[in-house]
Amino acid sequence: MQEIINGCIRKDRSSQYLLYKEFYGYGLGICRRYALNEFDASDVLNDGFLKVFTHIDKYETSKPFKTWFAKIITNTAIDRYRLNLKFSQHDDISGHEHLGQEAPVHADLAYKELLHLIHGLSPAYRVVFNLYAIDGYSHEEIAELLNISVGTSKSNLFKARQKLQERLSAYERNAAQQQGKSLQQINKHE
Amino acid sequence: MKKENNIDQLFKKGMEDPEIPFNELDWQKMADKLEANEARRKTPFWIYTGAGIAAALLVVLFLFLVNQNKPPITQRKSVKATPGPVIQKNYPEAQDHIVPPFSSNNAALAHEKPRATQQKPDADLTMRAAGPMLTPAVPSRASVAPRIPMLPEVAASPLLFSKQEYRGQPEIALARKQSNAVKQGNIEETTLRERKQKLAVLDQGNTRGKLTFSLLAAPDITDSKTSVGTKISSNIGLLLTYPLSKKLSVSTGAIYARKLYDYGGNAAPAYAKAALPWSLNADCFVIDVPLNVNYQVLKKKNYTVAVNSGVSSYFMLKEKYKFTGTDEAGKPLINTLELNNENQHLLGIVNLSVSIERSVSDKLSIGVQPFIKLPLTGIGYYDYNLRSRGVAVSLNIKPFRSKK
Q1: How far is Cα A17 from Cα A10, in angstroms, rounded to an integer?
Q2: pLDDT by residue (tens digit) across B333-377?
Q3: What letter would DSSP give residue B404?
Q4: Which of residues 47-106 of A touch B (CB under 8 A)?
Q5: Contact B33/A20 with Cβ under 8 angstroms?
Q6: Mean pLDDT for chain A?
Q7: A123 touches A92 (CB < 8 A)
Q8: CB–CB contact A86 B338 (8 Å)
Q9: Each residue of A166-189: pLDDT tens digit?
Q10: Distance (Å) from the C-alpha of residue B2 to the closest C-alpha of chain A?
Q11: How many CB atoms lie within 10 A of CB B122?
């Protein structure tokens, strides 16, 4: 790993490629949670990687690279979020009823379903939930980062959890109904 | 509370480090971004220095022109400020001339006169050509002697305006000047034709006369390697050109451009098994401020051909983007983004062009200019390597140039 980082400091393209490949999935995972769509997520990821490559000489080797990397990517995503506040989204995914159609019980929810649920939140709820619940930021840190009050941060987190809970319950109901239908069909055949 | 924490844990566990397959297309975009960034870091040495020198040159030139073409009104003002002006009525040509009473105690006038005589002959001529002239008066003769406006010949005489001649004695110097003016003749002796000739000569030496204003309009195609489709963008602007030598000139100005372009591709699948197609339609309003150096390579009777190169700064006034994609269910997703004054790309574009110009008259010419604009940096919100190519049509005017 250190060799790759040294190569990146020398601006060696093959080392940059290796680092990009290594942290692509992890970085894109962060970006997808914050970004508006897949296109935006890839763009934020590359903006973040550009900062990583540009400032890699400032990385302190005593600390885990993954943490340093995640911080840069998250900050880049937050910068984009601020800019995207002007973004008008015509299609609000939160209104989609098809989301729960193939949902398993929530304990077994897969990545794509979780991502869908996260994207169902409004940007303000989503960013606070991401920062607090997944990335481990405190309300004070979130308030400073987003230039909002601690109270707003707490309120947004509460509402985000509430919305997610409602949708998870909808998933469970759908899943139960489907299970019931399947059992009825099996009984008919028998 | 416990339930809420469970939600946090559920999402943290499921989303913290997902397995996302690597997409080479994203690396290609990253590599482009790195190259653009490295190019931007390398170019300042020559581009920014060159552009800085050119900009400084233009500023100096501008100040020089402003000073040179400013009529010497300060002289008139200070004279007017003196108390008790006498309006001369004896001579029709001099009716508007204000003749202040002269006295050795009149500090303003005593101070002003030597300064006036220190002016270059050319500047005096300009002043004279500009309109009614100031007639300095002699104290005792103020109301008796005929006042005659200073003639160009008189003003141009270095001997008459020699500093040494009247240093410390402005009254004597002025009296001598006045009498010399009378001796050499009056305004009737300078024919209209002679005046015209002198003005023409004067105008040729006047730097303002060399300025060319160009009004241009240009359609262009703005795109990059990954563009989808072709759209015609439009430009309209005003340029100012100043010759540095017979063949070399510099141009700057402002061009208002509307840039339309489309992008498209396939995004890495987030929720779906197959890659999702997307497209981006951009509609950007830009002020393009070029700074170009022009070299004349050919000059025929009525035609000139020049090659031009330089750099442009883009000031993105408005950027409108429309993103169109599909979700995994095949349902269309449409997002729009509108930004105002968010992005500026200082000296971020290289300009290359060839201009062919045909003279219509002394003051007027028309031209065509095939051009290409290459980015040194990513342009707009999405940092695309936008290049433009098109043909400009221009109308070039030299408004200050006198007819020969």
Answers
A1: 13
A2: 777 777 888 788 888 899 999 999 999 988 899 999 999 999 988
A3: -
A4: 49-50, 53-54, 83-84, 86-91, 93, 96, 98, 106
A5: no
A6: 80
A7: no
A8: yes
A9: 888 887 777 777 767 766 776 666
A10: 12
A11: 15
Alpha-carbon gap: A14 to the closest alpha carbon of chain B (Å): 10
Write out chain A residues lying below 8 Å of B31, CB-based.
13, 17
Q: Do B284 and B243 form a contact (C-beta atoms < 8 A)? A: no
pLDDT digits (tens, 9 = 90+) for B173-230: 444 555 554 455 555 555 666 665 655 555 545 556 678 999 999 999 988 777 777 8
Torsional class of B117: left (φ above 0), alpha (ψ -120 to 50), beta (otherwise): alpha
SS3 state of residue B239: strand
> Is A176 within 8 Å of chain B by CB?
no
- The burial of B150, by beta-carbon neighbours within 10 Å (0-12 exposed, 13-18 middle, 19 or more buried), is given as buried
Whether B10 sits inside 8 A of A98 (CB atoms) is no
Rounded Cα distance between B181 and B177, Å, is 6
β-pair type (B387-397, B212-223): antiparallel
Residue B67, pLDDT score: 62
Name which of B154, B149, B155 is nearest B122 in CA terms.
B155
Q: Looking at the partner chain, which of B14, B267, B381 has a beta carbon nearest the beta carbon of A38?
A: B267
Residue B120 has a pLDDT of 42
What local confidence, expressed as pLDDT, does residue B180 receive? 53
Interface test with A, best of B3, B6, B7 (most A CBs within 10 A): B7
Q: Mutation test of the interface with chain A: which of B322, B335, B338, choosing the one with the most A Cβ atoms within 10 A?
A: B335
Residues B180-200: b if buried by 16+ CB within 10 A, e if exposed: bbeeeeeeeeeeeeeeeebbe
Q: What is the rounded distance in angstroms from the CA atom of residue B226 to the CA atom of residue B25?
A: 11
Q: Yes or no: say if B221 and B260 are a contact pair by the CB < 8 Å rule.
A: no
- Name the pTM for this structure: 0.45
C-beta of residue B202 within 8 angstroms of C-beta of residue B129: yes
* B-interface mutation test, from A13, A14, A16, A38, most B Cβ less than 10 A away: A38
Both tokens assigned to A165: 């809970």
Choice between A110 and A34, residue whose per-residue pLDDT is larger? A34
Yes or no, beta carbons of A83 and B342 under 8 Å apart: yes
| Reported confidence tier of residue B58, pLDDT bands at 50, 70, 90 | low
Token reading at B389:
């190519």
B337–A87 CB contact, under 8 Å: yes
d(CA B355, CA B43): 26
> C-alpha distances in angstroms, A24 versus A33, A61, B43, B298?
14, 20, 30, 55
Please give the ipTM for the structure prediction.
0.76
Q: Are strands B232-243 and B276-299 parallel, antiparallel or unpaired?
A: unpaired
Cβ contacts (< 8 Å) between B34 and chain A: which residues? 13, 16, 50, 53
